[in-house]
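Two records follow; treat each independently.
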Amino acid sequence: MENQPGTAFALVVVGMCGSGKSSVAAHLKAQGWPVVRFGEVTMRELQRRGLPVSEANERRVREELRARHGMDAYAQMLLPGIREHLARGPLVLDGLYSWSEYKYLLAHLKERLVVLAVTAPRPLRYARLAARPERPLSQEEALSRDIAEIETLEKGGPIAMADYTIVNTGALEALEAAVDALIAALGTASLAFPETAG
């Protein structure tokens, strides 16, 4: 996929849990990129319902929202905010899960959508998930989450259809360097971001 230098686009970061999506988003946010997290929809709903943050509650909310509003529910809810950001410059979308969300955004944003898959071998992902300081997952919990996300949230499709892929098996610095190289190749490294980005 080609992007003209200076053209605002949404960089959609996809991947299985523990692959490094949030690290990519955090790296770009530190450079001034606005970040829209799909997971914030889940967190807001948990708060609205008065439910504690847990893997089980997050999964239940994700599945219920999509059962009630369609598999593209999160993309529909976030599209107005995405368009507002695109009016000012490029942004990062962190956590798109479903094939339906991908198709919905592709239909509404067309060439302004660039999908980056971040991948890592499953044993490495599970080791990262077990060691993370917030909401660590056991190997059994991580496997259960993988299966649920693939079977009920259509997560594999956007990863398979990504425009670019970074294999994240090394240090964080290597991942960040790969992201920087991709951004430079897309011609956005010198874009100015609004002071209010974030």
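The next record belongs to a different protein.
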Amino acid sequence: MKFWVGVTDNTWFDFLSRQNLSEVNFWQPSAMPLFKSADLTGMPFLFKLKRPYHHIAGGGFYVGYSTMPIDLAWDTFGVGNGAATYQDFLHVIDPKRKIRANGGLIGCTILSSPFFMPQENWLISPPNFSSNIVRGKHYDTIDQDGATIWTFLSQYLSAQKTPDVIEPSFEVVSEVRTPSQKYGTQTLTKPRLGQGSFRMMLTKAYQGRCAITGENTLEVLEAAHIVPYSQHGTHELNNGLLLRADFHKLFDKGLVSVTPDYKIQVSPRIRETYFNGKSYYRLDGQKLSTLPTQIDQQPDRDKLDFHFRNIYQG
């Protein structure tokens, strides 16, 4: 099993170790991804602190990567960015920004189920981790160095009184290689999205455009649940639509819906109640403007049918 050991800012780590969060933003000021490879969703991502420590001190599980404007990253992840306030976030990030001509974008690597080990449990000096590595390094448990790190980490997590630190947030999706049977069967897991990663990955899936109008002003786009989260809806991408803020409110109230064949429905109650709504009614019966290119990220038709039958005020 492959995993990543990322060079981690000590202040970021210290702040987040005192929080209780389901996801964090391991941001990069250069807006460049830490690694380029096939889908690594669920890959363990370990925190290797900078000097004077050089220890592995915790980790999380890779959800995905995207670029975001700094203010939107704060709106989406808040203290999960590793700072108490937006001004603190700017104060930390600005000195690190080498290029300001990139539209204010930063790289956002989202990690689910982060865990932070007490200092007495840190693993000192990961094997073959050169001092000139500034971003991070891939390891594989099939190799000696990777097996050493992963065995240490597995023993630590297994020894915790609360083994649900990571377990409830993951589903087993496939079996991968093991260096030896003595380490047990290892599995690749799929992290469940939190609210922030749901918004980020939905924005990426819809290429930053409202599903209904095609609007691409990120500041007014929001992640809408098709089956409401309060009614056991999930943060899965096929339970979401990226919508302009006004359409999001209308969708949640059942004044707008989308049929299973991806047609927009606008309730007559907008006209009856507010004596207006011309800008909405011209979209009634039209096909969605934008859909994800990946089939498994497109709105689930059964979930759309649920919304249309149970929430829409048609």
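Discussion point: DSSP finds nine helices and 13 strands in the chain. How would you locate this feature using only the token line?
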